[in-house]
Every structure is written in structure tokens, then in C-alpha cells.
Specification:
This protein is an alpha+beta fold. Helix content is 34%, strand content 18%. It contains 14 helices and 20 strands. It has helices at residues 39-44, 72-75, 82-93, 103-110, 136-150, 164-175, 224-237, 288-292, 303-314, 317-333, 384-394, 399-413, 416-422, 427-443; strands at residues 8-14, 20-29, 32-37, 60-61, 118-121, 134-135, 185-190, 197-198, 207-212, 245-249, 258-263, 267-268, 271-273, 276-278, 281-282, 284-287, 301-302, 344-347, 353-355, 373-374. It has a five-stranded antiparallel beta sheet with strand order 4-3-2-1-5. Strand 10 (245-249) and strand 11 (258-263) form a beta hairpin. The longest helix has 17 residues, at 317-333. It starts with 7 loop residues before the first strand and ends in an 8-residue tail after the last helix. The model is unreliable at 153-165 (pLDDT under 50).
Length: 451
């Protein structure tokens, strides 16, 4: 099969009702990538990216950076890390090198399998598809093997050395969408209450889940899922509104006690009301990275800007206070991988925005104790005056109200050791994380004082 670079894509949005509407057209030439809204879309629906796209039918050129040459809202649909690894595996098997591909080629590969409400057609002829059910244990073990091989030196010379079963699983993983992040994972569908069998194409009544697998090559090894589960528990106690999650028992041969499953918040399950059946639908999802053109690979975002953008986008003072609460959680919990792709917003069909659930929340210390998102210019231990300014921008009336939020977050984090022991996390890991949390509270002791 000869490779022809994609020149034009039709962009479609799936509404929460399951109805599909034409959004516009993406096209590229040697000068760059261009987007044009469909007039019919703008007459009925809100701007998909109000900070960087104009709500008109003029042709709009994409910035060269930081989204691989496409507009931020479409850059959000591109894979990175794990998803890029899977795509590259498929393309290499077809004799196509990654440096031959443009972002448009990758969007065509994603097609309708990405997170969020946007899809792209025509779909790439190289997209891997599988409609068969697959055993979740097999999927996880093979995903782990693919991830581990990518961490070793021999991988570059063995792209095609896959047996039939692994080839089938690779197709299932790729069909599971353009998962971002570095960890091995899969977007799958399961019947309610089912944790053994899964599929990459939804059946009536299915729930949509993102399964995070583990690896000995990850910072917390096979305890990654358990630690993130504890952090999600603490985030719930701290009123940070994390996503719905569950731990799924992993097979013994995986080395993991359990894998973490997160219920997808962009997916609206089909419903049957008074005898009428509604198809499954989607909510439009937009990261702070795409919304603000803030490169997630470098420290390019500040909580002052994030909170300001959140209040402006969602038109709600309460949203600013929620984002501040989450920022405090990250600060005190050493969740320092708080880059711009780990903050997102959801747009309903009527154009109204709200913050997405608090996701990718876990223990992730930086070697130099620096956050990816700064606190008023400070990567760590921000001064009291800086945090007071941040609190004011978030909509708090006074520092007393702010300090109550800080105390609530600290109280939630104080339960780490108990919750971690309940999940069976090793004593060594519990001790290391507990010591770090103690240090973070000491470093930020000024925040607990009355001003």
C-alpha cells in the first residue's frame, strides 16, 4: 500500500446525544495547516477553542508550535508518549518512517477513536481496527511487554518481530485511541460490572474506561496504580472532584496487584428513558495546553494564568476557587507533573464550559522539586504574598476563607499512610511518600499561618 500524505480532513463533532455535526475542514500545504469553520456549525454551536480560534468562517492558519503545526484544539487529539509509540509501530510495519508523517496524517489515523468529541475523516488506510472482544489480562500483559521493549535498546531493530497474538493486541491497543501520557494504557469499553472482557468498539449499554497498566520501568513500578488510587481517594476527600475510578485485579504474571481504571468523563453513555433510546455521545474536551498554546513539554504555564482562564472560560467565580484548591493539592502532595495537558475543560452542546475532573493526580516529584505549572513565578515553596495574590485572583474574599481550603486539603493528605496501608502498598513506598508529604507541608508552613 503506497503512502500518500493527507492534504484535507473533515472535522466532525459528536454531541452528547450521539448526533454528529460537521464542524469544518482542515487542510495543509507547504505554507502550513489551515482550518475553516462550517457556517452551519457556528449558527448552532459555540466556539471549540475561544482563546485561539475566531468564531467565523474565515480561513485560520495554525501556529507552527507547540502543537506539531496544527491548532491547539486539534493538537489535543494527537497522541503523545504511549499513543505515539503504538502509532509508530503500525506505520513502521507498513514501511513508513515517523519522520514521513505530518500531524494531519496522525489525526487521520486517530479518526473517531480519540478522546473528546472530535473525529477526522477520511480515516487513514493504515489505522488498525479490531471489533473482537479481548481478554483484559492479555491486553494488559502485552501492553506491558510493548512498553518494556520500548525502554530497551533492541526495540529499534525489532519493529516487526511480533507474533500473531501480539499483533492482534497491538491492533486492539491502537484501536483504543490516541492515549496521551507516557504510561501504557488503553481506552476500552466494558459492560457495567464487567472487568474480565473488554472491547475497543462500544456495544449497547457499555461503559467507557481508560485502563492504566504498570511496568517495572515506571517510577513506582507495579505500585503505580495503587498509589494513584490513594491520591484519587485523597483528592475526593479534599473536594477536588476527581474522576470515577476502580482498581481491577491484575493477573499474577503481570507483576501488578491491580490496574487502575478511570471512567471516561468525555463519554456520555446511552440511556433509555420512557421507552426511548438515546445513543452514546461525547463532550468536547480541551486541555489547557491546547486552549492556551502552553507547551506541556516545558514549564510554560502558571496557576495565575490557569485560574484566570478558567474563570473567564467557565464564567464562574466558584471555578477559580476549585482550581486553586487543586493547585494546593498538587503543591502539598508533590504532584509536580502538573503540566498543561493535565488540566482540561469540557464543553456541553449548548456551548457552556466546566472544568474536567481532576485527573492524572499522583505522587510525581521532580528531581529538583519544581512544579511544571508555576505558582506566581515560583516552581516550589511559593511565598505567602504570592499565594495571597493567587487566592484573590481565584475569587476568595479573604485569606481566612483561603486558609480553610488549605487546611481541608492538608487534612485529606494527612490520611495518606492509612489509605496506602489499606491498599496494600509496600512499607518502603509508604514511608518514602509520607516523608515527602511531611517535607512539602514544612516547606509551605507559611500558608497555614494567619496573615
Amino acid at each position: 500500500m503506497s503512502f500518500k500524505p493527507i492534504q484535507k480532513l473533515t472535522v466532525t463533532r459528536t454531541l452528547s446525544s450521539g448526533e454528529q455535526v460537521a464542524v469544518g475542514v482542515l487542510a495543509q500545504n507547504r505554507q502550513g495547516v489551515f482550518f475553516q469553520y462550517a457556517d452551519s456549525y457556528l449558527q448552532q454551536f459555540g466556539n471549540l477553542s475561544p482563546f485561539t480560534l475566531q468564531a467565523n468562517t474565515q480561513v485560520q492558519v495554525a501556529p507552527k508550535e507547540p502543537h506539531q503545526g496544527v491548532h491547539g484544539v486539534f493538537g489535543d487529539c494527537l497522541p503523545d508518549g504511549w499513543g505515539m509509540l503504538l502509532q509508530d509501530r503500525i506505520f513502521r510495519q507498513k514501511g513508513i518512517l515517523p519522520n514521513q508523517l505530518t500531524a494531519m496524517d496522525r489525526l487521520a489515523f486517530v479518526g473517531d477513536k480519540g478522546m473528546g468529541a472530535l473525529s477526522f475523516s477520511p480515516e487513514s488506510a493504515f489505522s488498525a481496527t479490531t471489533h473482537a472482544d479481548i481478554d483484559l489480562a492479555t491486553l494488559g500483559i502485552e501492553a506491558q511487554a510493548l512498553f518494556d521493549s520500548s525502554m530497551s535498546d533492541y526495540m529499534d531493530n525489532n519493529h516487526d518481530d511480533l507474533d500473531g497474538r501480539t499483533q492482534h493486541v497491538l491492533a486492539a491497543l491502537v484501536a483504543g485511541g490516541s492515549s496521551g501520557g507516557a504510561r501504557p494504557k488503553a481506552q476500552i469499553y466494558m459492560s457495567a460490572g464487567e472487568t474480565k472482557r473488554c472491547r475497543t468498539v462500544a456495544q449497547p449499554g457499555d461503559e467507557a474506561w481508560l485502563i492504566k497498566f504498570t511496568s517495572k520501568n515506571l517510577a513506582l513500578g507495579h505500585e503505580e496504580g495503587l498509589c494513584e488510587a490513594v491520591y484519587l481517594q485523597m483528592a475526593e476527600i479534599a473536594k477536588c472532584q476527581p474522576p470515577i475510578w476502580q482498581l481491577i485485579e491484575a493477573p499474577y504474571t503481570s507483576g501488578a496487584p491491580a490496574w487502575l481504571a478511570l471512567k471516561r468523563f468525555d463519554y456520555v453513555a446511552e440511556q433509555i428513558n420512557l421507552g426511548s433510546k438515546r445513543r452514546s455521545g461525547r463532550l468536547h474536551m480541551h486541555s489547557a495546553c491546547g486552549l492556551l498554546d502552553a507547551d506541556f513539554r516545558t514549564p510554560s504555564l502558571d496557576y495565575i494564568d490557569l485560574i484566570k482562564a478558567s474563570r473567564q472560560l467557565c464564567k464562574s467565580p466558584a471555578v477559580g476557587q476549585l482550581q486553586f484548591r487543586r493547585a494546593i493539592f498538587n503543591l502539598l502532595s508533590s504532584n509536580q507533573d502538573d503540566h498543561s495537558k493535565n488540566w482540561a475543560f469540557l464543553q456541553a452542546d449548548d456551548g457552556q464550559w466546566q472544568p474536567a475532573p481532576f485527573y492524572d493526580v499522583t505522587y510525581s516529584p521532580h528531581p529538583f522539586n519544581e512544579h511544571a505549572t508555576a505558582f506566581g513565578g515560583y516552581g516550589k515553596a511559593p511565598p505567602l504574598k504570592v499565594m495571597q495574590k493567587l487566592a484573590t485572583s481565584a475569587g476568595f474574599a479573604n485569606w481566612s476563607a483561603t486558609r480553610q481550603v488549605i487546611e481541608e486539603v492538608a487534612e485529606a493528605l494527612s490520611q495518606f499512610t492509612y489509605l496506602a496501608q489499606q491498599q496494600g502498598i509496600s512499607k518502603t513506598t509508604v514511608s518514602a511518600i509520607a516523608n515527602t508529604l511531611k517535607q512539602r507541608k514544612q516547606e509551605n508552613a507559611a500558608l497555614f499561618l494567619q496573615s
